[in-house]
Amino acid sequence: MNIHLFQLGLLGTNCYLLQKDGEALVIDPGGDPQTVLQKMQENNLKLQAILLTHAHFDHIGGVETLREKTEAPVYLHEKESSWLTDPSLNGSEFFQVGTISTSQSADYSIKPGHHKIGSFTFEVFHTPGHSPGSVSFWFEEKDVLFAGDTLFRQGIGRTDLPFGDHETLIQSIQEHILSLPEETTVYPGHGPATQVGEEKRTNSFLI
């Protein structure tokens, strides 16, 4: 499995394009969908799904165009099922960055547990705290975790936004992320990648 990183949208949100056996998954297309579409075209990839770690505005700006162009379904946790279409919930209204929304809700509710989509197999963890429907995607075969805005290198997701909760976030990190093998690479929603072991030892928010 190959991983392509793009920094997209108003806040340069990390968007990940996963490539395997001529198929692709996209995680958190925050904007600039043509960038992702061009990469898929260059590699002759068929998009199987659009996975969202959560539905804050800076993670969803490219969703609708990708869905329309590829007919790939969108997956999102049920606790944020109405956020895609509601700027007052996804934060775009709160941050006054203009109306960012989709014309329709997610196609599927993503639930914790084992999933197989096309050539990809992965585990979904419900990791609330930054937002109530935040999830993380663990690809055990590659030993990588896509954590959204739950955990960053030397940091954690902010919890001062509506529906955020600090204690819940710390519990999510401890139960579902720090319990993974220390060599697991964590790909966050913003900033550089890190490893579980490094964050255990040096992240001041977790020590």
TrEMBL record:
List keywords of the entry alphabetically. Hydrolase, Metal-binding, Zinc
What are the names of the required cofactors?
Zn(2+)
Per UniProt, residues of the Metallo-beta-lactamase domain are 12-190
Family annotation (InterPro entries): MBL_Glyoxalase_II, Metallo-B-lactamas, RibonucZ/Hydroxyglut_hydro
Tell me what this protein is called. Answer: MBL fold metallo-hydrolase
PANTHER family (UniProt xref): HYDROXYACYLGLUTATHIONE HYDROLASE GLOC (PTHR46233)
Species of origin? Allobacillus halotolerans
